[in-house]
Amino acid sequence: MGVSRQILLLSSSTVHGTEYLKYAENEIKSFLKNKNVQRILFIPYALQNHDEYTDKIRSAFVKLGYEVDGIHKTSDPILALNQAQAVYVGGGNTFQLLKSLYDNSLLEPIRKKVLQEGLPYIGSSAGSNVATVSICTTNDMPIVYPPSFKALGLVPFNINPHFLDADPTSKHMGETREERIKQYHELPDVPPVLGLREGCMLHVDGDKATLKGISGAKLFDPSKGASDYEVGSDVSFLLNIQF
């Protein structure tokens, strides 16, 4: 890979008891500082009210010292992407987000900018889902139908944001998150799934991947089973996965 990819994938934008992105402030600033970013292109497609969503994101990033432009405000989204210093893809409904990326012909341009030109990519929740192989391990309802579940493929595995460990005291009889992922792995030729607990984020710097934040992750490998990883773990091996 000629240019070092720079990717920061958050399980969620907010953790209990804190403001929007508060828990991730230091990581975001450190991540963007490496590329001297001053303006962020926000992709608000995961929610219907793009203006309101962009205003919310702008107010959070202004506190960190960054300006924010909503991609929906331009008549040429691809041109806006090509001129961007960094891109942030927010959470909401993953199906709606992916369909809008297809509708605006943005998947391949984003993939090229991030993997070939080193454009910093920050994703949160649904924005993290679409950075992976597919959105098949999202928690969201399919409220719209994208042309494909295939996503950006910035990393060669899938993510399950907001991952919840099973509560042994719960009387809830529905499937646990782990059981849902195991059902996915009953299918042939599907990738491992990294379950990001609330407050966890994955930082990809070129060929190095590290878990950061305030909580760890659980990796589900269809051939090896489940493994826990703490904050600070080097999970660079995930970037070399073939399935």
List the helices and strands and how they pair.
Elements: E1 6-10, H1 25-33, E2 39-43, H2 50-62, E3 67-70, H3 77-83, E4 87-89, H4 94-103, H5 107-115, E5 121-124, H6 126-129, E6 158-163, H7 177-184, E7 193-197, E8 200-205, E9 208-213, E10 217-221, E11 225-229
Parallel strand pairs: 1-5, 2-3, 2-4, 4-5, 6-7
Antiparallel strand pairs: 1-8, 7-10, 8-9, 10-11
The count of DSSP E runs of length 2 or more, i.e. the number of strands, is: 11
Number of domains: 1
The top-level CATH class is Alpha Beta
What does the overall shape look like?
Answer: globular
For the largest sheet, list the strands in their spatial order: 3-2-4-5-1-8-9
Oligomeric organization of the protein chains: single chain
CATH superfamily: Class I glutamine amidotransferase (GATase) domain
Question: SSE order in H/E notation?
Answer: EHEHEHEHHEHEHEEEEE
CATH architecture: 3-Layer(aba) Sandwich
Ends apart, CA distance between termini: 20 Å
- The overall average pLDDT, rounded, is 94
Q: What is the CATH topology?
A: Rossmann fold
